[in-house]
Amino acid sequence: MKHSEIQSKKKITFLLLTLLLSSCLVGYGQDDEQLFTLQSEVLQEERGYWVSLPQSYNQPYNDYQKYPICIVLDGDVHFYTAASTFQFMGGKQIPEMIVVGIKNVSRSRDYTPDKIQTTRPNDFGGGDNFLQFLEEELIPHLEAQYRTLPFRLLVGHSLGGLLATHTYMKPQTLFNAFIAVDPSFGGWDEATMDKKIEVVTSASFSRSIYWASANSLDGQEKNEQRHKRLFQLLSEKAGKDFKAELAYFDDEVHNSVSLIAWVNGMKSIFKDYQYSYKNEGGIDALQKNYNALSERLNFKILPPESLVNRMGYRALRNKEEQPQAIALFKLNTVNYPKSYNAFDSLADAYARIGDKEKAIENYKKSLAFNPENTNAEGKIIQLSE
Predict the structure, then answer these.
(1) How many Cα atoms within 13 Å fall on the side-chain side of residue 329?
(2) Which of 13, 31, 45, 76 is the most interior residue, by most CB within 10 Å?
(3) What is the pLDDT of residues 19-50, one digit of tens each?
(4) What pLDDT is attached to residue 4?
(5) What is the rounded (10 degree) CA torsion for 323, 328, 330, 332?
(6) For residue 120, is pLDDT > 90?
């Protein structure tokens, strides 16, 4: 069954404006009725969170699909805009994902990994405790509620970016990738930074991270210099295994950099996920591309089902490329063995080349996964006659 794909040609400025406006409109509806809660034994308090599901999540006969989890810190401020951005990009530039925003209680407590002495009392230093809540309570809870893949992203801005960086540098974490937007490294002087980098293990370099640094407008650029120093020292320690990028945005300040950083950060982490159905390399080039992406992310990323389906139908139109079409449709049945559409498309290809027996066989498999597939039902009758 042939599915059309929506091709967006909007300018990035229009996209950003649309997302900003939509997030503002949705934000007015943010109330306790939309807020999920989880009682945390680790934090000894109830924590709230919002969830945004991909558009395809609740489509009929799509329950075989599973999705990565993206956790957005400072959910009170960032959830709606981040979720809109990532869902817009999902399935095209990045995989579709479940986006979760965490409601704040005390960000100074939860997002700071170190105790710091100040002239006034503070609650700094609860970062690892908060991470324990995320990894031992929230993520298992989400995995029990939703169809998830064991690939998790952590996105944070300012102090949230500090926590994302700290998590990336830990020897063990459930998170695979990070976006740290203008992280606040105010407590990381050179001596502190050097000590932290000294104990970083190779486990960190199996993960991917994107840092965004904004114009501090303070004339001294202290935070920007800390970003550059950390990136350089980690790069030297990681060598060729460093899966990271640091981007500086001279036209953005601390409070304006988030949106563009989220877009560019996701494109950086999932570089080469977007693949043209018109690529002339066929199935070999397709598999090579996604195998390289999987190796870089240290996680198996399958070619999107809709992409392979479209490539298959394109090849099917040319008689010389019909064997390639069969191979592409077969690939989808291997990667998505419970997809009725994958078997329906493979059956279409066999019908096109005149192999009625295999066409009927695969239409029947498609019907088994979706009894409402009238296309398969009609084709079986037609081919049987």
Answers:
(1) 29
(2) 76
(3) 444 444 343 333 334 789 999 999 999 999 99
(4) 41
(5) -170
(6) no
What's the CATH class of domain 17-269? alpha beta
Q: Give me the residue spans of the domains in the chain.
A: 17-269, 301-384
In angstroms, what CA-CA distances link 238 with 195, 233, 243, 254, 293?
Answer: 16, 9, 9, 28, 19
Contact status, residue 345 vs residue 325, Cβ threshold 8 Å: no
Across the strands, what pairs with 102? 49
Only one residue has tokens 């939309």, namely 34
Distance CA 110, CA 181 (A): 17
Distance CA 160, CA 180 (A): 7
Picking from 145, 143, 59, the residue whose alpha carbon sits closest to that of residue 339 is 59
Q: What sections of 199-280 are H helices per DSSP?
A: 222-238, 258-269
For domain 301-384, the CATH architecture is: Alpha Horseshoe (1.25)
> What is the predicted pLDDT for the residue at 6?
35
- Tell me the pTM: 0.89
